[in-house]
Specification:
Distance between the termini: 35 Å
Strand order of the largest sheet: 1-2-3-4-5
Strand content: 25-35%
Radius of gyration: 17 Å
Number of strands: 12
């Protein structure tokens, strides 16, 4: 079993055993109106997050629901905060458990936030490696490969930590300036287009539309 998320970013995960998977699936219950994770066809990994003490990030993949990239959730004090591509679950947890945003954690928090808070066309994926498991298969374009670069923490300001990163959103790549604020909010200050109309898209479906009869 491979990690569904980049171990370079999120570290080595814990792989849940069958009993733990069953408990997790029961905890999730019904989601998106009528879906449920099947413990016999689901793999679950969890990750520690250095800016939150006692919070784990759970990522579940059910082979019987291929249209869902994965079910993602934060668990804190036995409560589940589902990550569905919107910001309220993260902000709600931040209100209860203020994140420890420091020069050591700001970039990892930015990577996490941009992955799990999506726009209409998907995540604002921080593009740092061609080895990431979420990248589309079959990328051969040298122009794309040349844009891979590590995200950088530029300075600390009164607002928070100023960061720069290449960002892949939908079928375009741009260079962006962010401020990671101490309360966990992230603001994109400006962006510079680098490549557009690419034949590849970053796709991450974290929520399903209700089934129609």
């Amino acid at each position: 079993m491979k990690s569904p998320l980049s171990t370079r970013v999120f570290g080595e995960p814990r792989f849940l055993n069958q009993s733990q998977i069953s408990r997790f699936c029961r905890k999730v219950g019904k989601f998106d109106k009528r879906y449920r994770l099947n413990a016999s066809t689901t793999e679950v990994t969890d990750y520690g997050l250095p800016w939150w003490k006692d919070v784990r990030l759970y990522v579940a993949r059910d082979s019987c629901i291929p249209e869902l990239s994965f079910f993602a959730a934060l668990i804190y004090q036995d409560r589940l905060f589902r990550l569905d591509g919107t910001s309220p679950p993260i902000h709600n947890l931040n209100k209860e458990l203020p994140p420890q945003i420091t020069s050591d954690t700001a970039l990892d928090y930015l990577r996490f936030f941009c992955l799990f808070v999506n726009g209409e066309e998907g995540p604002f994926y921080v593009f740092e490696s061609m080895e990431d498991p979420l990248l589309p298969d079959g990328i051969e374009d040298e122009a794309i490969k040349k844009l891979v670069r590590p995200a950088e923490l530029i300075t600390e300001s009164a607002e928070g930590y100023v960061c720069e990163a290449a960002v892949w959103y939908s079928n375009a790549i741009f260079f962006a300036h962010f401020v990671v604020q101490l309360d966990g909010r992230v603001e994109m200050k400006e962006d510079e287009p680098l490549l557009a109309d690419l034949p590849h898209k970053i796709k991450l479906n974290l929520k399903l539309a209700p089934k129609t009869s």
